[in-house]
């Protein structure tokens, strides 16, 4: 948003400047506020954003007893003063994401009894205080990319109003330091018992956890973003090879994004029951030989090929030495836009025919791999050859690197837009 438009919008929102209800400060704006000694005026604001400030952030006292929204990000904040949250009963939205020095949250956060949205993503917090169990009105809890994080037992199950939960962790670091194989089933059980929960984004590290998810109707309906990491066959009490799926049961209707990394699984045939899957990323799985198994018969595929992976928009396959097939039969892929393939030398055909993937914009891969592919006929090859880009040429075009898949869990608003939307009551349902 242009600075002039931003300032005008905030001026109008603050009733022509007479009531400083909205405060949006970056480093430059905060410098001018400190210099002009106007900080006391803004302590009465109802909604505040302190963003990307190189100045030391002083939080010696709450800004306002009527503060509804507080967003502090990309600052030098590392902790809160004692008793800081005790007078914040009106606060509904607290966003502390992207504060790299923030290492702890005080127990007094439990005093924010009206809090509905809490975002602690991209901080260095290592443990959630048990006092969070007092936040009975909390609807959204974001804990993405924090690293090893201790969540007290029964904390999640106490958040009875929770609707959105997201904990997507840092690769490698989280796996090494968290004993997931033993405790994540209990954690899933806590999420399962939350009746209002609608949206889950989570990482799983064991076959038994995945089996629990696939056998739980409640979890299937709620899972939106799933990442599977470091599954090893020797840890699997039940083999997914023989896991039976029926077409109209175990539908994972809400799953939109799936990442599978370093997992010892042979296929992902159960994805045929994920009709809304939009993004699929598989990396470093040495055992996988097919996305949809050959046992999922050609006749059966032929009957439902307009449904199987029908919502998929992005497909990324990387370092899969045994992958021979995505699917034995050609699929429609009506929504597919981007395919990225790297180091999948055993993959010798794509599930395309002349009616497939009409929305496809590009296929990115190695030229030697592309030239070795088998095609149903020359006309199909010609159609898709025009959309192929060599990976090395593509990475130098200035566009997004093809292996970076960005998942947007919420609409992206600028900081000023956030407050304008809040003024109109249209940003989420929590303001």
TrEMBL record:
Record PROSITE patterns: LRR
Tree of life domain: Eukaryota
Gene3D superfamilies on file: Ribonuclease Inhibitor
Annotated coiled-coil segments of the chain: none
Keyword set, alphabetical order: Repeat
Any Pfam family: LRR_14
Boundaries of every Disease resistance R13L4/SHOC-2-like LRR domain copy: 90-366
Keyword Mitochondrion applies: no
InterPro entries: Leu-rich_rpt (IPR001611), LRR_dom_sf (IPR032675), LRR_R13L4/SHOC2-like (IPR055414)
Protein name: Disease resistance protein
């Amino acid at each position: 948003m242009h600075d002039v438009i931003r300032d005008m919008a905030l001026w109008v929102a603050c009733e022509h400047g007479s009531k400083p209800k909205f405060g949006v400060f970056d480093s430059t704006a905060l410098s001018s506020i400190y210099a002009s000694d106007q900080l006391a005026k803004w302590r009465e604001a109802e909604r505040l954003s302190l963003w990307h400030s190189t100045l030391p952030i002083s939080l010696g006292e709450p800004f306002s007893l009527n503060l509804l929204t507080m967003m502090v990000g990309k600052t030098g904040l590392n902790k809160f003063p004692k008793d800081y949250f005790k007078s914040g009963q009106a606060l509904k939205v607290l966003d502390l994401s992207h504060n790299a020095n923030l290492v702890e949250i005080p127990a007094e956060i439990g005093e924010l009894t009206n809090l509905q949205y809490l975002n602690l993503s991209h901080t260095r917090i290592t443990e959630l205080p048990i006092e969070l169990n007092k936040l009975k009105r909390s609807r959204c809890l974001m804990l993405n990319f924090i690293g090893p994080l201790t969540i007290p037992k029964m904390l999640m199950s106490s958040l009875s109003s929770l609707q959105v939960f997201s904990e997507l962790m840092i690769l490698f670091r989280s796996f090494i330091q968290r004993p997931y194989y033993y405790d994540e089933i209990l954690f899933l059980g806590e999420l399962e018992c939350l009746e209002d929960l609608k949206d889950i984004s989570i990482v799983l590290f064991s076959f038994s956890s995945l089996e629990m998810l696939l056998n739980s109707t409640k979890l299937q309906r709620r899972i939106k973003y799933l990442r599977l990491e470091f599954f090893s066959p020797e840890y699997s009490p039940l083999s997914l090879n023989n896991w039976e799926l029926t077409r109209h049961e175990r539908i994972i209707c809400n799953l939109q994004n799936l990442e599978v990394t370093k997992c010892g699984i042979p296929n992902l045939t159960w994805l045929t029951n994920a009709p809304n899957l939009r993004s699929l990323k598989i990396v470093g799985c040495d055992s996988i030989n097919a996305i949809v198994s050959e046992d999922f018969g050609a006749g059966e595929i032929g009957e439902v090929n307009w449904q199987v992976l029908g919502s998929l928009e992005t497909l990324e396959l990387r370092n899969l030495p045994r992958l021979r097939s995505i699917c034995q039969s050609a699929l429609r892929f009506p929504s597919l836009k981007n395919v990225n393939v790297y180091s999948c030398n055993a993959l010798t055909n794509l599930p395309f025919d002349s009616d497939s993937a009409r929305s496809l914009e590009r296929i990115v891969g190695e030229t030697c791999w592309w030239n070795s592919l088998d095609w149903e006929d020359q006309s199909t090859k010609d159609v898709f050859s025009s959309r192929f880009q060599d990976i090395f040429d593509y990475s130098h075009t200035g566009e997004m690197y093809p292996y970076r898949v960005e998942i947007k869990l919420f609409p992206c608003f600028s900081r000023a837009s956030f407050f304008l939307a809040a003024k109109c009551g249209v940003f989420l349902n929590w303001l």
